[in-house]
């Protein structure tokens, strides 16, 4: 297992919790997005325990990269709250479950083993929200209407079409305001849209922007 977190005390606690477990071995540690992706690619661990708050970016983006470049690796995200929008964003990016910081040792071991064996760890609330989102995706032709956009750009466009402002988009996708502005600028350029309003109109015609 690869541990990804920039808080030494938390890592110490995780290592202590895993010590003595014959079926779980920590093969490496990373403290930021760049090293997490690099180590996941070189070590190919069965499980990555991924913090969502990292010094050089979001654990959501790191999760997406790890899943894309190391398909045999499963990501278990770490969060302070199961209600965090970033948890759902991470699941959409390919994470297989989450563990709330402060949870017990038995809960951590159970989560790691479940994800390692191919299962998923969701709370009922997160499962409901994911189910609603994926149901919406299945009925939205807009998810395929703009092939020139990346998945992240489609996510931004979808939220713009729902009426989200940049700050709310940033919170929902666990991005900075500046990153959202950059993504939106690229979306407008790729779509050839004059402004945000035109992009919203085109996205809604394509079926994007449906509320959960």
UniProtKB/TrEMBL annotation:
Keywords: DNA-binding, Phosphoprotein, Transcription, Transcription regulation. The modification 4-aspartylphosphate is found at residue 51. CDD domains: LuxR_C_like, REC_NarL-like. Residues 142-207 form the HTH luxR-type domain. InterPro entries: CheY-like_superfamily, NreC/VraR/RcsB-like_REC, Sig_transdc_resp-reg_C-effctor, Sig_transdc_resp-reg_receiver, Tscrpt_reg_LuxR_C, WalR-like. Pfam families: GerE, Response_reg. Residues 1-116 form the Response regulatory domain. Gene3D superfamilies: 3.40.50.2300. This is LuxR family transcriptional regulator.
